[in-house]
Model the fold of this input.
Amino acid sequence: MENSVLANSRYDRMQYKYCGKSGLMLPRISLGLWHNFGDVDDFTVATDMIKCAFDNGITHFDLANNYGPTPGSAERNFGKILKDNFAGYRDEMIISSKAGHLMWEGPYGDGSSRKSIMASIDQSLRRTGLEYFDIFYSHRYDGVTPVEETMQALIDIVKQGKALYVGLSKYPPEKAKFAYEMLKRNGVPCLINQDKYSMFVRKVEDETLGLASEYGVGFIAFSPLAQGLLTNKYLHGIPENSRAAKSSGFLKVEQVTNDKINVARLLNEIAARRGQTLAQMALAWVLKDERVTSVIVGASSVKQLEDNIHTINNLSFTFDELQVIENVLLQVNS
Done:
């Protein structure tokens, strides 16, 4: 990691954007710890990736209580990496975590109740060794807990000093709207909405992006590379050690369809004409929307992360390029 005297050059390597109508800037590319930072992964590689990210201006690191495997291990490992490598850099980082999915046994280890949310943030703070999170999310609307109960927990978390900002993840638009209004009334406006968005998954374009913009809420995309389908990894089948090949991964073999592979190959040709990798073009395509604050990338190596970071060298598209891309995507989104 570089010395602090080189901080200006570090930040020159990244672009930043204000999150919604807040005064908080986020890097256009954020690092997610959903995969490759758990107990089943190489701790040295995880450490090197976080160092690489920070040294290239990535200031935002995205966690959740259940990230691993095992659940909780990504937070523990991140806490160790911070303690051993980033002493004195806490105020240059945005660290987020979430609660809402299954984390521990019994009736209180899952869902979005006040009991679960409050217990979860305390556990997450202990695992990471942090005094507060910069952003704490409700990881999902669980379909049972009243939204006002979950939002009141988030409001109290900020007022107790356990988080600076709050966010929503994967909320249906009508529930998100209720949450935005309640949070704003109580002086803790929603900073950011996190949801899945990529060339292959575009549901947020229907309502979520517009609603976030209307309420001055930022938007951050997870899985912008469709779990690796929008990279060169699967252009010729499923390689060993890929996400689809791992039993612990979320990408299943049956999701790697011939239609998606064929579309990815066509997109790869367009990316090559732009002087980019397919992954870089796919990230730039998500970031082209002014309502998108940042994209969360996952990485399994420093080389892969560096490739993603180079996306910011070319974020613009011509009208003709967008039309060609749209025509190609119709083959998989129709």
Q: What stands out?
A: The first helix runs from residue 7 to 12.
